From TrEMBL:
Entry keyword annotation includes Protease: yes
Location in or out of the cell: Plastid, Chloroplast thylakoid lumen
SUPFAM superfamilies linked to this entry: ClpP/crotonase (SSF52096), PDZ domain-like (SSF50156)
Record's protein name: C-terminal processing peptidase
Main location group: plastid
InterPro entries: ClpP/crotonase-like_dom_sf, PDZ, PDZ_6, PDZ_sf, Peptidase_S41A, Tail-specific_protease
Molecular function terms, GO-annotated: serine-type endopeptidase activity
Main enzyme class: hydrolase
Catalysis performed (reactions): The enzyme shows specific recognition of a C-terminal tripeptide, Xaa-Yaa-Zaa, in which Xaa is preferably Ala or Leu, Yaa is preferably Ala or Tyr, and Zaa is preferably Ala, but then cleaves at a variable distance from the C-terminus. A typical cleavage is -Ala-Ala-|-Arg-Ala-Ala-Lys-Glu-Asn-Tyr-Ala-Leu-Ala-Ala
Organism, scientific name: Gossypium raimondii
Length: 484
């Protein structure tokens, strides 16, 4: 074994580099590793580091010299020249190591180390609530470019610069964060609003019975908010408001720059209270005062229709009106089918007119009732198809009888999913008008303090890969004649 191979020069290099990196890591964690023009501080750091390097180098060199001396005395004269040759190699190796370490030190210090005056802070309860909302958007939002911004940088900037000293300031910071996404359907819900939204999907709501949205492209540059549907029997329906009407004012306040969710909150209120609306129907403008009432959200009405014919037994048609997709929707449709079947119906008519949607899972479950197999909807994000909802027919109870579906411009969201699935799977024929065209999916997330977020998580395509959102609606729901 050659004595120079036992020399710990590589160990010296590795240990010193580790110490340098550890020093840098400690500085980074303490907030002291940042750019600076403080040349004095920089030079001191280099000087002390090189002194430590020199001490370690000298110590290790001395240790080796002692070991090397013992080895020289124990070897015979014939090996002496060989040892000297190896010693020369060691000195050359030491020179390379030393130069390499100095270069490493210069590279490290090129980052301009200086004492930092960066303030540190502990995350408060308000900061944690903001971070909870930020993480929800980070994980669930459909657009992973976040409207072309660095989402992580926004988080850091907001924690440093946005005031979050109380709950209202935190809510304001969350709203400001969501506004950067430029998505009107992704919004913050304060605890009371979140509770109200949940009550609307569970079957009870107090208001005037209107579903509203933004004017579509086909409606030109009309201002205000468009009525998607009016709940049958509700205050708005009884006052003559119908799909396609434009709400210009709510309680004498213009709706031109008001979001649909803020407008919906203005329309809701205590049972028996009143709200004034300015509504445009065609060229006519009407001023109406409506009394808020508890809106019954039983989503299904059905009846048996007999069609007169030449035969003794008239054809019987089961008519099902589905007004919304709340938590009762699919179960209520099944119950209506069973009731109509007991009267020996020959066909069904499913009326989705003025159905503005609701719970996405209920739309899927309702589609399964009518389909023996096939794709119901594709869930897509910016990268393409993310998920597929289909059925194997195990939930089908009405997959064979002839089926017609009625739609209009008040048919939106989950009801468009159902209509698209039935049409593209050749299960039903659609009659009516182009639908509203809301092809984005929102999920509702509850935050730890009882508030919540409604977040656009995806868009959907029909089984034929047609995008429902605004474009496909014109071809999805065209009027068709029944095949003989």
């Amino acid at each position: 074994v050659h004595p120079w191979k036992s020399f710990p020069g590589k160990k010296i290099e590795a240990r010193l580099l580790c110490r340098i990196l550890c020093k840098r890591t400690n500085l980074e964690h303490s907030g002291s590793w940042r750019s600076s023009t403080n040349a004095i501080c920089k030079h001191k750091f280099v000087f002390h580091a090189l002194c430590r390097l020199d001490k370690n180098f000298t110590s290790q060199s001395g240790l080796f010299a002692i070991r090397h001396g013992h080895l020289l005395r124990s070897w015979n004269t014939s090996s002496h020249q060989k040892v000297i040759s190896h010693s020369q190699k060691i000195r050359e190796h030491f020179s390379v190591v030393f130069v390499r370490l100095v270069a490493a030190m210069l590279l490290v210090t090129s980052a301009s180390v200086a004492l930092s005056n960066t303030r540190s802070w502990a995350l408060s309860e308000e900061n944690l609530l903001f971070l909870e909302a930020w993480r929800t958007i980070d994980r669930a939002y459909i657009d992973k470019t976040f409207n072309g911004q660095s989402w992580f940088r926004y988080r850091e900037d907001a924690l440093r610069n946005e005031p979050m000293n109380n709950r209202e300031e935190t809510y304001m910071a969350i709203r400001k964060m969501l506004a950067t996404l430029n998505d009107p359907f992704t919004r913050f819900l304060e605890p009371e609003k979140f509770k109200s939204l949940r009550s609307g999907t569970q079957g009870a709501l107090t208001g005037v019975g209107l579903s509203i949205g933004y004017p579509t492209e086909s409606e030109g540059s009309r201002t205000g908010l468009v009525v998607i549907s009016a709940t049958p029997g509700g205050p708005a329906n009884q006052a003559g408001i119908s799909s396609g009407d434009i709400i210009l004012e709510i309680d004498n306040a213009s709706t031109e720059s008001v979001g649909i969710y803020e407008a919906a909150e203005r329309l809701q209120g205590p049972e028996g209270s009143s709200v004034e609306l300015t509504v445009q129907t065609g060229p006519e403008i009407k001023h109406l005062t409506l009394t808020r009432a508890k809106i019954s959200l039983n989503p299904v009405k059905s009846r048996l229709c007999e069609v007169p014919g030449s035969e003794k037994n008239y054809p019987k048609i089961g008519y099902i009106k589905l007004t919304s997709f709340n938590q009762k929707a699919s179960a209520a449709v099944k119950e209506a089918i069973d009731t109509l079947r007991s009267n020996n119906v020959n066909a069904f008519v499913l009326d989705l007119r003025d159905n503005s949607g609701g719970l996405f899972p209920e739309g899927i479950e309702t589609a399964k009732i009518w389909l023996d197999k096939g794709v119901i909807v594709y869930i897509c994000d910016n990268r393409g198809v993310r998920d597929i909802y289909d059925t194997d027919g195990s939930s089908a109870i009405a997959a064979s009888e002839p089926l017609a579906v009625l739609v209009n411009k008040g048919t939106a969201s989950a009801s468009e999913i159902l209509a698209g699935a039935l049409k593209d799977n050749k299960r039903a024929v659609l009659f009516g008008e182009p639908t509203y065209g809301k092809g984005k999916i929102q999920s509702v997330f509850q935050l730890s303090d009882g508030s919540g977020l409604a977040v656009t998580v995806a868009r959907y395509e029909t089984p034929g890969h047609n995008d429902i959102n605004k474009v496909y609606c014109r071809s999805l729901c065209i009027s068709l004649a029944l095949s003989p």
